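STRUCTURE:
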């Protein structure tokens, strides 16, 4: 309880950078020699000690092939003869792990500590830059800075429904973005691919995201939301456009409704197999909607318990290897089916997908690559 009290004091007068020293002093109260916060970098490749005052930086730990990384990948506690690693989860969002050097521990009590540490990181991160300094392994371009500051957490779960997304390249993205919100029984999801790159694209992306949120918060349905975003893009950026999927999922009944605005069709996976693709497009890209006189088409699909939907931008399927061969829809489908068969959680599947795409293009993406997975358990 003394350790909890000290941590709770940080809620009212502290920053994220104060957490490492506090945990160092509190470690004996937890029966540990040391207690270290390890945060995952933006590329989700390694775990780095949270930067703090008076603390020396330890070597990073790979996410793949290590016990600490296993705690992050699986969101479960892992142990060794001398260490305990507990996942740091803010809701369903994976922040990193808490490493405790201890031979014997009450895991249940330590999970409470890890949950509190995660909440402190999430709530204190905006009062300084320690978390960003820790997570960034290279300078972030301004266009990427603008977009990342607009995005929600990568993962969210509610009542058996989970949505998780990935975005690459982490440090130079400008045109891709996603958003979601859970209101009552409805999960709203949007995936956007803006024409162009750099600052101009990030400015258009910012307008698109905030217009989407404004329409949603004003209680507009899918058709009116499409028309609102389309109107504002035409007014502020004439000649530009954004492809998108605007979707709603009833988390109780599994009824899925969406508009595909010039965007690739999402994958629908059921029972280890791909279902027929949903119609696409059902509307012109946002910003070009007035070129057709008819309203955007809304597709309705009834999901079955356990279904998974994968939304993606063309940077995924149009990735090319050294010979110029496209990654393609078939390879994407096979990859996701294989990962689902392994029983992996959605965040880990998306992490592996984006690393597969980066590897396929030999580490140099030609276009932004983004994807989001929605899983409905029913």
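SEQUENCE:
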């Amino acid at each position: 309880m003394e350790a909890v009290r000290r941590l709770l004091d940080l809620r009212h007068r502290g920053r994220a950078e104060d957490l490492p020293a506090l945990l160092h002093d509190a470690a004996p109260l937890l029966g540990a020699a040391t207690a270290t916060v390890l945060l995952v970098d933006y590329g989700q490749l390694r775990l780095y000690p949270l930067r703090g005052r008076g603390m020396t930086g330890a070597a990073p730990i790979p996410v793949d092939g290590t016990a600490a990384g296993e705690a992050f990948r699986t969101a479960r506690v892992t142990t060794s003869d001398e260490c305990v690693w507990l996942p740091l989860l803010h809701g369903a969002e994976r922040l990193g792990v808490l490493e405790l050097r201890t031979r014997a521990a009450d895991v249940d009590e330590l999970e409470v500590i890890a949950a509190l540490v995660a909440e402190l990181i999430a709530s204190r991160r905006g009062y300084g830059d320690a978390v960003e300094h820790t997570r960034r392994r290279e300078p972030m371009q301004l266009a990427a800075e603008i977009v990342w500051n607009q995005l929600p957490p990568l993962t969210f779960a509610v009542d058996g429904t989970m949505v998780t997304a990935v975005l690459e390249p982490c440090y130079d993205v400008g045109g891709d973005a996603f958003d979601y919100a859970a209101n009552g029984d409805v999960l709203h999801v949007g995936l956007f691919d803006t024409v162009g790159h750099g600052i101009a694209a990030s400015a258009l992306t910012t307008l698109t995201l905030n217009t989407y949120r404004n329409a949603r918060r004003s209680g507009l349905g899918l058709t009116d939301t499409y028309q609102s975003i389309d109107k504002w893009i035409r007014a502020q950026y004439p000649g530009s456009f954004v492809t998108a999927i605007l979707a709603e999922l009833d988390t109780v009944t599994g009824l899925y409704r969406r508009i595909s605005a010039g965007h690739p069709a999402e994958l629908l996976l059921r029972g280890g197999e791909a279902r027929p693709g949903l119609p696409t497009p059902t509307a012109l890209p946002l910003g070009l909607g007035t070129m057709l006189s008819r309203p955007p088409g809304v597709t309705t699909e009834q999901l079955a318990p356990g279904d998974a939907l994968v939304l993606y931008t063309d940077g995924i399927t149009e990735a090319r290897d050294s010979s110029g061969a496209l990654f393609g829809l078939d390879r994407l489908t096979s990859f996701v089916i294989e990962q689902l068969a392994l029983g992996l959680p959605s965040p880990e599947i998306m992490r592996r997908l984006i690393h597969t795409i980066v590897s396929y293009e030999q580490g140099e993406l030609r276009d932004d690559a983004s994807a989001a997975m929605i899983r409905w358990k029913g």
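REMARK: The domain at 142-376 is CATH 3.60.40.10 (Phosphatase 2c; domain 1).
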